[in-house]
Write a structure and sequence with these properties.
Chains A, B, C, D: It is an enzyme of class 1 (oxidoreductase). Chains A, B, C, D: Pathway: Amino-acid degradation; L-valine degradation. Chains A, B, C, D: It catalyses: 3-hydroxy-2-methylpropanoate + NAD(+) = 2-methyl-3-oxopropanoate + NADH + H(+). Chains A, B, C, D: This is 3-hydroxyisobutyrate dehydrogenase. Chains A, B, C, D: Keywords: Branched-chain amino acid catabolism, NAD, Oxidoreductase. 4 copies of one chain form a homotetramer. By secondary structure, chain A is α/β, with parallel strands linked by helices. Chain A has 2 domains: 161 residues, NAD(P)-binding Rossmann-like Domain (Rossmann fold); 123 residues, N-(1-d-carboxylethyl)-l-norvaline Dehydrogenase, domain 2 (Orthogonal Bundle). Chain A has 13 helices and 9 strands. In chain A, the strands form 2 sheets. In chain A, strands 3-2-1-4-5-6 form a 6-stranded parallel beta sheet, sandwiched between helices. Chain A has a 3-stranded mixed beta sheet with strand order 7-8-9. In chain A, helix 1 links the parallel strand 1 and strand 2. The longest helix of chain A has 29 residues. Chains in contact: A-B, A-C, A-D, B-C, B-D, C-D. At the A-B interface, strand 9, helix 8, helix 9, helix 11 and helix 12 of A face strand 9, helix 8, helix 9, helix 11 and helix 12 of B.
């Protein structure tokens, strides 16, 4: 079923996502402050919107992919927000990774105007965006989730329904906080093995086959040389940057605080990633935390 | 190939391990300070040794399964140790979980007398010991590992060669330290989700299918009700006790110190498990760390 | 020099603070949503304002003492804020403990209208408020600090100038974060001594005379029985509540995040205080963290 | 009262300590494996012992100042130990910083032979050793403490009685663990202030006058430029080296483990100091932990 879709925010992630919607046969109208990426997509079958308002007019679905809460709130709310432009029953899908409170605030205000909203943060990186194999973690009511699912399926492979509006954001940062713990913990366990004379590959194989098994050991070993395709073996070229993991951990710490949750392991990981940033590794892949435990 | 095997230490783990060797057709001579477990095994086909020395005489292989380093050192070394009793070329397999330094010390002293030694700590718990599906992580030279492998295969399923003598112990505690980090991290991530209105099962499913995936989410979910067969859903009946995890983390902290390794996540986990013990949960399953993050 | 002072927020702290201004001879107009505390002060020489706007009219100085950022922002800013009521050149002294960003925001907006602003969070508790011995940590420009100093001197003993607007808040939470670290660290050091057979008083005396010396050992020993006058010896009756320390640590974590500061010790303390809250100790004195490390 | 004193271990600390005993009028017989330091002291009035046994003969008191437990145990115990040489009623004062268990072991074995023993670890560094202003923290029974006090008074200023044998060691590492927490906590609090625009000196002054006050703020500010005489203002030239603090924290972690104490703050500090060592700062003053939190 072909839809008329607006897409705002055509960065490293948003660009290829919009391109996949074009390929899937939708009519896609695109907007970004960077005109050159708009032109690129326009030359590949998208319509170039003249501004955000234009992009949000005469569409079934509006997708946004922006850097942070303030951009999302400013796009939709306030005197100049799209809330005054969007037609009733339009479905808004915000794919940005932002704090859940902001997602709930935007969703509630749009809802009062009869505009549907789901938050749908992604994981899978630029590679997944390009290949159309992203994971979407969606928050919103059942009917809106069903609608969104059809569109998201043209950009991704796994589409989860986490709960009400905001739940997509919460589930994503719970996952990413846990991922940072797995990465830090796996790194220090391998380093301790090395420091005691073990071979990193042998130890990794043993733990992968034992109760230490986790996503980082299976697919993303942080020790250089253990896994040929992992960023660690490619000079920690990202992949998923330290700076982005630090941003997600910031959102996790905010969520922990707002809900008065105890997160000693997550807080530890947050501080380790902050120290890694201070050492100048912000643009490295997040598995570079391995180096923080190294003796050299 | 049937062997003559001595087995010392017939506790919750050692008893069923020895029984499996009997079933496999070996001639098994057993000893423990607790006479009743000796009698049990004797009535099932084992020979009852009169003491440790008797148990260590006229055998091909000696297996020991003892609580701590001091028991292992005192069994083998010193004026009254089995080092004076064991025949040259006997293979000693110590399945106890002890510090690597002690394993190396015992292995080196036995080696000087021409007695072969491997350290082969296990994981898999009482259930694995009974079913004969234990995992053994072995340290020792290649030839001794090959010999040991044949015997261990009658008690377990996965047999890893981690490296030289002591490497079995190091690899096991690296794994168990990582496991404690996975369990603590998974617990606090799920609790933060719950505190923000998410359903624990939905969140667990999402993370299992995402980059937060790890052994605890797959097989041992710490949140009551998510996984029917997990200890969490059975009032945290172990399983693998908090006290045992605390012991293994103690060995991990010792190894970290001796090798001057930085283990911020492992140290955090160690302190959390110590606080859990102080709250009276020492005999609960180690997934009970979930309760430490609960708001009650 | 007698001034005309408005005072909004007459809680446990604000009430006695306003009373001290009356005693010092100022003309004090007071307002609170709780009418009974207004009446109390009125019967002791204050003028009862009918509402916040009334309280902010015809005065030289306005002081506010409110629970959180949202109350402060809503009092001063927005369509109904006092920003539309306060006369140019009035000096606003906000004694609330809030995040620095909010303090800067309020200060900047008032400044644009020619209204002077300093943030002046306090320490010293209800006892200090009553005795007029509070410590004020002030942020604002030099001229405004000088003005504020004269008023604050009638409510407190130590008045520090930390820097520009917002610096008062930052300095206070840096101090309180450090205090939480001192309290947690002192508690675990004493507990470790006790667990190794030392007498808590003897150990405390030794550390007080050595390089472990700190404010908590000198004035506020967390171990029951060591210091007769400390909350620890009075069943942890506050004093300064766990809940309030947790709030301040929340502000510290926010400041750390906004400035991308690494605070591993502060984060550890924050998580320990959160766990203490979850154990039901929120209303105990903050030295009750001592119990978190206890074996019983 | 002049005594005949043997002194073994004439390093950076032991050398000046022995020299002060000579100055105080005692007859001092000295021994070290390094013959040149023996000669130095001999040329200043000490007697040069030919070996440890000679040093331990015909004396009232034997003092030892050695690097680690293994040296102390090997000096006193075993087939070649001084236990076979020392006369009954000799008082042995071991000033080494070692684990309490080893101190208790040595004390117990000597005690069985009627030889008195106290552990008396020091603080105050080389400067204190030279000036005769060391602090001694003593473990042993009351009578032996009284005896020791007279000798120690010639080398130090503060002499504390912590409890039974081993208590000196425990009290010292409790204090030094707490000191590491104060230093790390003070460093991150000041860095957070700086990152938020505060002046380090102003913030330090405020916290010194408030509840954040502690030994490091008063005497040893870790921020360069705040305190002219502190190592921080002298390129972190020690003072007390990172490597030595890491050693003491290692002893603290051992004591925590043996007594099953929860030490989350101390463990955090230990890991931070280990990471600092890995960054090549082992020979810097321990206040260099300030740099670990810096943004560069």
């Amino acid at each position: 079923m072909s839809l008329s879709i607006g897409f705002i925010g055509l960065g490293n992630m948003g660009g290829p996502m919009a391109a996949n919607l074009v390929k899937a046969g939708h009519q896609v109208k695109v907007f970004d402050l960077n005109q050159s990426v708009v032109n690129d997509l326009a030359s590949n079958g998208a319509l170039a919107a003249t501004d955000a308002k234009h992009c949000a007019t005469d569409i079934d679905v509006l997708i946004s992919m922006l850097p942070a809460s303030k951009h999302v709130k400013s796009l939709y709310l306030g005197d100049t927000g799209l809330i005054h432009v969007l037609a009733k029953n339009t479905l808004v899908i915000d794919c940005s990774t932002i704090d859940a409170a902001s997602a709930r605030e935007v969703g509630a205000e749009l809802g009062e105007q009869g505009i549907a909203f789901v938050d749908a943060p992604v994981s899978g990186g630029v590679a997944g965006a390009t290949a159309g194999t992203l994971t979407f973690i969606v928050g919103g009511d059942d009917a809106h989730f069903s609608q969104a699912q059809h569109v998201l399926a043209d950009m991704g492979k796994n589409i989860f329904h986490a709960g009400a509006i905001g739940a997509g954001q919460i589930a994503k940062i719970c996952n990413n906080m846990l991922l940072s713990i797995l990465m830090a913990g796996t790194s220090e366990a391998i380093q301790m093995g090395i420091n005691n004379g073990l071979d990193a590959k042998v130890l990794s194989d043993i733990m992968t086959a034992s109760s230490g098994r986790n996503w980082t050991l299976e697919l993303y070993n942080p020790c250089p040389g253990v896994m040929e395709t992992a960023p660690a073996s490619n000079n920690y070229k990202p992949g998923f940057m330290v700076d982005l993991m630090a941003k997600d951990l910031g959102l996790a710490m905010e969520a922990a605080q707002q809900s008065n949750s105890a997160t000693p392991m997550g807080s530890m990981a947050k501080n380790l990633y902050t120290m890694l940033q201070h050492q100048g590794a912000g643009s490295d892949d997040f598995s570079a935390i391995f180096k923080l435990f190294s003796k050299e």
